[in-house]
Every structure is written in C-alpha cells, then in structure tokens.
Design goal:
With 171 residues, the chain is an alpha/beta fold. The chain has 7 helices and 6 strands. It is globular.
Amino acid sequence: MLGFLREKVPEDCPRIHLAIQSPGGSVPVALALANILQSLPCPVTTYNIGNVDSAATILFAAGTERVCAPGARFLLHPIKKSVEGYHTLDTLSSLIKEIAEDTRRVTELLAQRTGRTAPSRWEELMSAPHSLSSEAAVELGLAHRIDECRRALAWEACCGNQVWRSEGVPE
C-alpha cells in the first residue's frame, strides 16, 4: 500500500482528506496502515463521518488533523483474537501475550497521538466496550474539533478527482 500511495500522491500534494466510516478490523493491519499514513509527505486530515469503531480508531488517530462530524461516535473495546479449534495451554498463553502486546501498542499510540491522555486511561477505556461521542473524543484529545465534515462527505480528494474508499480495515 505504501508503494501505491507514494505513486499516487504527488510530492507537492498539500493535504490528504480521509473520511472514515468503519466497523474496524485487524489491529495489526490498522497499526501498519497508521504507520503508512504517518509516513506520507503531506498532512493527512482524518474525518469521523459517523461511526469509527475498534481498529478504525487507530486509523483515525493517525491523522495530523482529526475532525468529527456532530453526532459521530467511536467504539473502543478489549482487543480480541480468534480462538477457533483446539488449543493447548501454551497456545492460549501465546494468544494472551499477543492480546497484551497489541493492547500496549494501541494504548501507547493513542496516548502519543492525543498528547494528553495517558496510556493507562486508554487501557481503562478499552477494558470494556465504551462508546465515545464527538465531544468526549475532543476532550480526550482523540479529535481536534467537531465540524460538519462537508469536505469529507463530498469525498473530495486533495490530488485530483481520484476517490479512495474503504469498507473497513482488512481482516
């Protein structure tokens, strides 16, 4: 994806506008995509245009400017892993370690990106399902402001007429 973006985003691109309406998905994939967004040569404005749930919150937090539509929501919850099939105590122990590591990475990223909410507060918010309003997101530093998001809702792209849409973070 980084190669694709580097090819499609010109060096002189003033800003990317990324509208997000997503049920979430894979935490490791969302972390990788957040790293890609943060490495682009131009600022990225992320918009929550309705519901940004679970791993999609990581993508939203990757924006250099983060905007919520009025009434937009975020869903935070404990990280989960698939445990289908038969498992030994060792494999279950390994899954628990993966969940703990993913939780640490996500809470540290959210704390770093918000600049004012400690990792322990994010861990507390992720310990059970929590729905955050736009106002709560601004208060926590997750969003910078609440706005109508007209630019995002119109699906305008900063670099021409190309429109990139995502139906969620890949599994």
